[in-house]
Predict the structure of Response regulator.
Amino acid sequence: MDDSDIFDTLPRPTATRPLLGMTVLVVEDSRYACDAMRLLCLRSGARIRRADCLRSARRHLQVYRPTAVVVDMGLPDGSGADLISELAGTTPRVPAIVGTSGDSFAEDVALAAGADVFLAKPITSVSVFQEAIIAALPADRQPSGVRLVSDDPIRPDPLAYRDDMAHAADVLGDYADDRIVRYVTQFISGVARSAGDVPLHEAAEDLAHAQARGKPLQANLARVAAMVQDRLTDKIAI
């Protein structure tokens, strides 16, 4: 059985589930953002696999070749741009490579690394998600016909946000490492933006600006850590 025979045995896309038969590997460290991706894939008909870091993603890719890989640009063990560059240069190539981030500068970085398309966080629209994946696919893999989309807002599980806050609290314990502070600041900022948690997002942005300018970080770190703890103890409802 050759590759075309295998493809012929997969479920065919439909108007309501245009990604049916496809597998999406989501490389994402935020459980909240990943739950949003789970819902987007579910409504679109795609199967989802998740990796929470570069190392885990590379293990996945040694075992199977997904239809699409959605790569967050900020990961705990490095930049998503490195994985995108690897994927873009691999033969056979993953059909669709998608970069994603909440940072405004990340789109240029993702596309320069070899991504086919970029999705800005938060991703709440089913139609936007579907169009991005389909546009990134080679022409012969794109489903044809009119697509019927129920574009009700995606609402990730609030418990996933709490899990992200627990992860942030653990990482915030190491104030001495600039790289870790940079990572957790980006992580908290992105998750808070996706969840609509404006106060925490603004506090994380203030911390990022202080670090970028070489200012003392203790006060900003303490403020962010306290706000994270408030969300863990249910003092703040999301």
